[in-house]
Records
---
Amino acid sequence: MFKVFVSKKMAKRLAIGLASAGTVTSLGVALALNMDLLASDAGAHLPNYPWFHEGMFNTFDHASVRRGYEVYKQVCSACHSMKYTYYRHLVGVSHTEEEAKTEAADIMVTDGPNEEGNMFQRPGKLSDHFPSPYPNDEAAKAANNGALPPDLSLIAFARKNGTNYLYSLLTGYHEPPAGVEPKEGLHYNPYFAGGWIAMAKALYDDVIEYSDGTAASASQLAKDVSEFLRWSAEKSHDEKKKLLLKVCLVFPPILGLFYIYKRRVFTVLKSRKIVYNPTKGPGKSGH
């Protein structure tokens, strides 16, 4: 008979290895069993659309941003605020300064107090943000069956794969699949987490008329407002791309000049040969 001797250290390592393997196996089985649930909670898989601004040196489609502003103003602003986007941000992007001032002047803003200590109404200015449709969150909930419409200023960054998510969500409304019971006050949209959303479908063909004459199909409306909301989430996007382009144009020549300078300065040092002669030393003549 053979006897196997196992040290305490080896037994401890073996126990730790078996425990780790059991833990990993359990987690793997649990994840596999709940994969369908996780997929349904996250919503349907988002397709990737060819957005022009995703190119390395591409800017936003400014004509689309302007149309998207029209969609937001005439459709989305009835429920959603954009308190981090100001009329001055439109200048040089989708509107001229005069056009932006005209857009701002169309709203009335509560300001004050005046010299008498009273609040008053005045036309909007470039320094004002887009107006909120409700005075506070409680009023917004009361008007939407308890659901609070999110602020859209940064919504493209608040959702994973934001631009594709917004477009898919806006165009993804349809009847629930067979066997799924409708829910009162909710609308079926597979791209929303859980499949049911309080917001009704808002974009239909020709629901608005574009100022530039573009055909206002539902998909075009969704594309333009998604582009506008993506711009609103990162207003410095175009400036960053311009800076990147400048760096790419300026850096290679500078790198070349440094290389030439390095070759001229250090060539002598790198090619110099230093020989140590042990017969010469302090106090020796060297003859």
---
Amino acid sequence: MSLTLGRDVLLFFENRDRDTFVRGDRNLRRRLRKTVELFRPNRQRVSGFEMSFKLLRLALARAGQRVHVNDFALARRNPEFPIGLCGHDHILEHRTLRNPAVLGPGIMDHPLQFPDLFDDPRNASYIVLCEWMRDLYARWYDRDRLFLWFGGINVADWPQGRTERDIDVLVYDKIRWNRETLVPTFREPVLDELRRRGLNFQIVSYGKYTLGAYKKLLARSRSMLFLCEHETQGMAYQEALASNVPVLAWDQGFWLDPNRSKWEPDPVPATSVPYFSDACGERFTGLDDFPATLERFLAKMPAYAPRRWVDSHLSPVTSGELYLRAYYSAAAHATPRSLERDRQQG
């Protein structure tokens, strides 16, 4: 097959499984896990890595690209053509392809997992999902090799729902760490404030719902209270915005991953809503400013326009354009200039 830059994209994806006993046994475990999940209907069945990769493929298709997935033979026949490596870090293990590469989304949590990443001449650039992540990675890598990308949200997939909604506040609980302390000392006082104001609310817990059930809840909800320490993208709150549900977000301001201390001795700035504006809702930092922020949020509800903001800033078209910018940069990393000519002509 003949490949043309500007029309073709070669992607390689590895999920969290890796081979353990024999080559390829990760695929068997993956199929078995999906079979088991059929009997757990209230659980999400797609990992964050899978969802990012799915959204990347959709965005590139929207951009008019032919996307080839895990086609090693095709890549070997075209060793100067760029490739994208996505998913878990073991995709870099036993790598034999000579092609210049865009790395990500995925791969690592911190640059010190791969401090010599760009010593490999095949590695042209790395995908970061938000600005706070780019700021962190730029401490270790050349900022010019860090390309911003997000998974696009198609508002057509998220209907605006009913005119009359019976849930005042949909509470999205994604508190991941130190829950034994934060649930009684933070979440419950926040919920008490909702009760004090007579607001009807329902709680949805991260990882314990299906996509269909979540859409139905959003269709019934007037607003969302998003409780999460930090996000690199935050698909759940963005899906709420796409459903025209304004968001009140807990945004405590720092990267709280328990692994942080292995790499960073000092606090790292972070946010729970990396893609957000005044059109989307409000943020609060903790219990002290929650009542006043909630008051402001409720008063401004008619003025928010989250669905329109998502359509303008987080569309699949923009997502595809961002990735292609990194992909064409990797093409320029290759030796022949014919690839760049193909892109310009394509």
---
Amino acid sequence: MIESAQLRKIFSLPVIVAALGYFVDIYDLVLFSIVRVPSLKALGLEGQDLIDQGVFLLNMQMAGMLVGGILWGVLGDRKGRLKIMFASIFLYSIANLANALVTSLPAYAVLRFIAGIGLAGELGAGITLVAEILHKSVRGYGTMIVASVGVSGAILANLVAKTFDWRTAFVIGGMLGLLLLITRVKVAESGMFRQMEEATVSKGNFLALFTDAGRFTRYLHSILIGIPSWFVVGVLITFSPEFAKALGVQGAISAGNAVMYCYIGLVAGDLASGLLSQLFKSRRKAILLFLAVTVAAVGWYFTAHGVNAATFYLICGLLGFGIGYWAIFVTVAAEQFGTNLRATVATTVPNFVRGMTVPITMLFQLFRQSFGLEGGALVVGALCLAIALFSLWQLEETFHKDLDYFEEFL
């Protein structure tokens, strides 16, 4: 039986703050996908430019997340999980406030890049903090709470974007982040990190992930199991209005509603995957089940010719449920490595997956020239899912793993 003291820790302040931080993170992360069309139209763009420049701006945001993932990850192992979690919240909040004032595409691109750097730090630092303060028997529940509360930020983003114009939506996101900083003074740092501060061990050595074959293989596969998530969000959901038109869906489809229903599914998926990983006592089995759901949902998406809008949004919800293994995926990455590399890995892995949106959308743009909109997306989706399944097969089970150890470097 799980001790009551361990259960109480699941709802401790660090877990709540990490969850709320991820909530604001997701709000800001998906907001661009929701306001892509109205914001670009306000800057004078029309037609094909709404897709082409939309891909460009999305890629700028994701490129920023690649840079930020490395920056915050290394600093998280050297300076502390809390400092990085709150510094990243501050940066993306300021960037989004400034984003509300843009009047040109170049300024929009620069601010999406800066916001991307800020958005890169919160999840990895939060998951690392939660994984280190909770007992191994309940840490899956803690990361489940972080993810399920966090992804619901996308639902708020859609509601705000429907109620206010796109500039106000960016302002609201920035203000939510700044308000969250007030909680900083009451949250304690991870005990494992405090112990590591006194140890003479190399901390946050990002290059060490590439100097040992075994470490690099663990790291690479930890990244690759997550790429179907951003194929779904970055292609199928972001460009859902264009896919719906090609599929002959009856009724207008908005990207905002597609994002909302996808993330409603994600909330349910994160709850279910966290509970199932505890029930199965296996992260790998839970992820395999959700990858199978994703395969089924992608198949339904591309065979939904002529369905009504309600059915199409239902499919978006199922897609979200299928990729709802996000929290377990980041937890697996954190559990693969020692305390002196854990924040580096937990922060860079999800951001490299998010950054994979760049090659994924580039491949999508390339293949759609030869295979059309639907065919190009199917080719890219099949590739992403096959890679994820292979990488999952290669990773060790980490459910019962004790995390209080250091990585040893030669």
